[in-house]
Design the sequence.
């Protein structure tokens, strides 16, 4: 096997982490919808679908290198939120956790001189820069608007295309 057992375990764990993120976004989407915020709900549904593709990328890599796949239990995400701001903040927190997880995996790949995995993981490193940027911009916008004017956030998302249209299926 071209990757170590430790790397295999790490990637298997990251599949679970990405699926957890996917579910966390579903929970946020559900909360947004319950608040009547359809554009934000669509945005988080889209994020959820994206996280699943991250899990699939990792899965295919394991299979490509002939490592074995082992899907662990996915913990329950946060389902209750006190405010839109709290929900949006939880998304940023989750992306920061994932960034640390990806960096740890990258660190392991470097330590093991596993340059194929280094190359593979680089995409995730770059993706996290985007993810953190999107999540923190949205949090900034939500704070700027305040709960009274949260609909302005939806308008902005519609206009700038940083979120899909409310009717779009992920
Ligand atoms: Fe991800
Ligand atoms: Fe993400």
Sequence:
């Amino acid at each position: 096997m071209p990757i170590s057992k430790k790397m295999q375990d790490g990637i298997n764990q990251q599949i679970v982490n990405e699926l957890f993120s996917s579910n966390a976004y579903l929970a946020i989407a559900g909360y947004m919808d319950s608040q009547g915020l359809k554009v934000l709900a669509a945005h988080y549904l889209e994020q959820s679908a994206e996280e699943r593709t991250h899990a699939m990328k990792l899965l295919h890599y394991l299979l490509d290198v002939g490592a074995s796949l082992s899907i662990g239990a996915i913990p329950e995400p946060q389902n209750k939120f006190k405010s839109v701001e709290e929900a949006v903040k939880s998304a940023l927190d989750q992306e920061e956790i994932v960034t640390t997880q990806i960096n740890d995996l990258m660190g392991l790949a470097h330590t093991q001189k596993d340059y194929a995995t280094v190359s593979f993981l680089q995409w995730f490193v770059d993706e996290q820069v985007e993810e953190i940027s999107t999540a923190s911009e949205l949090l900034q916008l939500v704070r700027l608007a305040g709960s009274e004017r949260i609909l302005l956030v939806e308008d902005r998302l519609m206009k700038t295309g940083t979120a899909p249209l409310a009717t779009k299926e992920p």
Q: What stands out?
A: The chain has one domain: 5-71+81-160. Residues 164-170 have pLDDT under 50 and may be disordered. The pocket of fe (ii) ion (ligand 2) is lined by residues 21, 51, 95, 98, 131 (CB under 6 Å). Residues 5-71+81-160 form a domain with the Ferritin fold (CATH 1.20.1260.10).
